[in-house]
Design goal:
The protein is an alpha+beta fold. The chain has two domains: 1-34; 39-169, no CATH class. It has four helices and nine strands, in the order H-E-E-E-E-E-E-H-E-H-E-E-H. The strands form two sheets. A five-stranded antiparallel beta sheet has the order 1-2-3-4-7. Strands 6-5-8-9 form a four-stranded antiparallel beta sheet. Residues 31-37 have low confidence and may be disordered.
């Protein structure tokens, strides 16, 4: 009788272990898809299909900024980074390059704000746009980045999952 009870306890323990392993495997398989949840497709102000990554980031002074990376049209079109602050926080004399740091590497992204007619005539001056492709073409992995915009913020950390979203925009197909 005791032998049968031990067998039942062993079977119950094995069943619990198997359920835990299946749950862990399920989480591992589903997690990568969740990292892309911030990439959306919709139409731009001009009616052109676009994909974008939208993320709210905090600088070292704990001020919030929106980082919107987007591509209008099919894969191969330029990817643009729009940095948006509260109106009055981002008054720039354009053009001002965006410094990007990753370890010992450094990039200076061109300010293309005035090429966007909507932003060029926006009196709030709460946004700036930068050509993101030179950075994305040079990255081989999703490394953390630090952005610096002279006179606005000295360091805005960008986590690796956001960099991954930005990199995916170059080739992400439109549906």
């Amino acid at each position: 009788m005791i032998c049968c009870e031990n067998s039942l306890n062993d079977l119950s323990g094995m069943r619990r272990l198997l359920c835990c392993l299946m749950a862990a495997l399920g989480l591992l398989l589903l997690t990568p898809g969740m990292a892309w949840a911030q990439v959306h497709q919709h139409e731009s102000e001009t009616g052109v299909a676009m994909v974008r990554s939208l993320e709210s980031l905090r600088d070292l002074d704990y001020d919030s900024w929106q980082a919107v990376a987007y591509r209008e049209g099919p894969p191969g079109q330029p990817v643009v980074l729009r940095v948006v602050g509260y109106p009055g926080r981002l008054r720039l004399d354009h053009p001002v390059g965006l410094q990007v740091l990753a370890g010992r590497r450094e990039w200076l992204l061109d300010d293309i704000t005035m090429a966007n007619p909507v932003l060029a005539t926006d009196g709030r001056e709460a946004a700036a746009e930068f050509a993101l492709d030179p950075l994305l073409n040079d990255l081989s992995n999703n490394r953390p980045l630090r952005l610096a915009l002279p006179g606005v913020f000295t360091e805005l950390p960008v986590p690796p999952y956001v960099v991954g979203e930005w990199r995916s925009l170059q080739e992400l197909p439109l549906s």
